[in-house]
Amino acid sequence: MALKTVIIDAEKCSGCRSCETYCSLKHEWVCSPSRGRIHVVKWEQEGIFVPVNCMRCETPACEMVCPKGATFRNHLTGAMEVDANRCIGCLSCVFACPFGATFVDGETGRVMKCDLCDGDPTCVKVCPTGALTCEEISRETYHKLVKNADRMPSLVKQALGEE
Q1: Which of 53, 77, 90, 114 falls between 20 and 30 A from 5, CA-CA?
Q2: Which CATH number characterizes residue 109's domain?
Q3: Which helix (H) or strand (E) holds 143?
Q4: pLDDT value at position 161?
Q5: How high does pLDDT run on average in the chain?
Q6: What does the DSSP 8-state code read for residue 29?
Q7: C-alpha dihedral over 11, 55, 96, 67, to 10 degrees?
Q8: How crowded is residue 60: how many other Cβ atoms within 10 Å of its Cβ?
């Protein structure tokens, strides 16, 4: 099985939050966007929405700072995961993530990350605009990740009226 990752094209995101809602339904059995493993950051006045998800870094800061080894890469799917039995709730991984893609469930206090739905991401299936795609990890995919990440500062500047 080839490793895949979720590619985010923020310019296509309409802010519908289907990805958050269906993610929470799949993982938590409740329709609660705040309990999803993907989050949409929004600047409503400007109409800009940016989905935030684990980027599956080559050298993940979340994994490096975990004192108990609870954050690890699933080598079958490529996803960075959290072993709830080993996690002590120190939140080091949350603070270390440069993308803000590691979350704490407000109801349970558990640390959450995208697990790629075992290689078949629900968020991608329900995204009506195609802002989320699941692609095999390759050099081309890596360049898409970098290109999309590089566009984020300009989207933020647009939202703030600085461009």
Answers
A1: 90
A2: 3.30.70.20
A3: helix 139-159
A4: 66
A5: 87
A6: S
A7: 160
A8: 22
